[in-house]
Specification:
Layout lengths: L1 H27 L16 E4 L3 E4 L2 E6 L4 E6 L18 E6 L2 H4 L9 H8 L3 E5 L7 H14 L3 E9 L2 H5 L3 H10 L5 E7 L5 E8 L10 H14 L7 H18 L3 E8 L2 H13 L3 E4 L19 H17 L1
Helix pairs in contact: 3-10, 4-8
């Protein structure tokens, strides 16, 4: 019995010692435990069992060192895109879906792409359904919901940035980042490919948080590895998955007698060229609205999102495409 206890103690001590060595090594290389860093802005999101999260109805204020920004979300989840809440009924609609570039991040209601578009298209009702953190898949899910409730939609505008590819496959590093920012915004729907290379939609998955991961880098690495095993989607499939999702959005729009427009806001040139070639071949409306020297139209206080001047340029680009086509 004594020997059994000694052997157990030896094994336990060895495991503990090796774990401490791993912990020390990981910390030396710059890795950190899974600490929660709360988002200091307004709580504009709420849980959604299909989308993962969506916007809350109401008016919110975001304050930073030199600016106060107002957010106004309507009952249908859209962000206010004009100075009048209730526009005349019967107008055709322009629907915008996408992530935070579309929604407008840390900027006022009247500084968004949709607001500037509404100023140009006075005979339309421009609806901004962009939601921070969304990729192509969540935008597609949002569009499905919109078509169930809204009619008379003339244009559907999907605003793309290249990071949407990573969101569509529930990239583990991205999910980890979300879980560090918000305890409420960690359920994430994603897409994978089945054995026949068809899209497989997956219900929102919650990022795993193991006990003591806020103290241990090693446990933080273990929980991340577990998530990589749990998530079925593969990194190398991100491009083909995104293309299939875009085609679904285009088909859904056509079924509802709407014109779908893919708008590239920012991406690497090779990614942009890849989508341009693919979408034009598939007869999907494509427009490249990337801004030259984009760094001049953003800053760290906007988390490197577009400012109002960038959004004016984006809206002019979209306006030009619509009026010329």
């Amino acid at each position: 019995m004594n020997n059994i206890f000694k052997n157990f103690l030896l094994i336990f001590s060895s495991i503990l010692f090796i774990s401490l060595l791993f912990e020390l090594g990981l910390r030396i290389t710059g890795s950190k435990p899974h600490n929660y860093t709360p988002y200091l802005g307004p709580k504009i999101y709420t849980f959604d069992k299909i989308l993962g999260w969506t916007t809350k109805k109401g008016e919110f204020i975001y304050e930073n060192s030199n600016k106060v920004s107002n957010f106004h979300f309507l009952k249908d989840g859209s962000r206010l895109s004009n100075s009048i809440i209730d526009l005349p009924k019967g107008r055709q609609k322009i629907i915008m879906v996408g992530g935070s570039f579309t929604m407008g991040h840390k900027i006022n209601n009247n500084e968004t792409i949709s607001f500037f578009l509404q100023e140009n298209f006075t005979n339309f009702n421009v609806k901004n359904y962009g939601v921070g953190g969304y990729g192509t898949y969540q935008s597609y899910l949002k569009l499905r919901e919109i078509f169930k409730k809204k009619k008379n939609i003339k244009y559907v505008i999907y605003s793309f940035i290249d990071h949407h590819e990573m969101r569509n496959i529930a990239d583990v590093t991205y999910l980890e980042g979300l879980s560090r920012m918000s305890k409420e915004m960690i359920y994430f729907p994603y897409v994978s490919l089945d054995k026949n290379k068809n899209l497989q939609e997956n219900i929102p998955i919650k990022y795993l948080i193991l006990p003591f991961s806020n103290y241990s880098v090693l446990i933080t690495k273990i929980q991340k590895k577990i998530m990589r095993i749990k998530i079925k989607s593969k990194y190398e499939n991100r491009n083909i998955i995104t293309k299939k999702l875009i085609l679904r959005m285009d088909n859904l729009s056509k079924k509802n007698n709407s014109d779908f427009i893919f708008v590239n806001l920012t991406s690497k040139s090779e990614i942009n060229n890849n989508y341009k070639k693919f979408l034009l071949k598939k007869n999907v409306n494509y427009v490249n609205c990337q801004i030259k020297n984009f760094h001049l139209f953003t800053n760290d206080q906007l988390d490197f999102h577009p400012n109002h001047l960038a959004n004016k340029l984006y809206s002019k680009c979209i306006n030009k495409f619509i009026t010329e086509n």
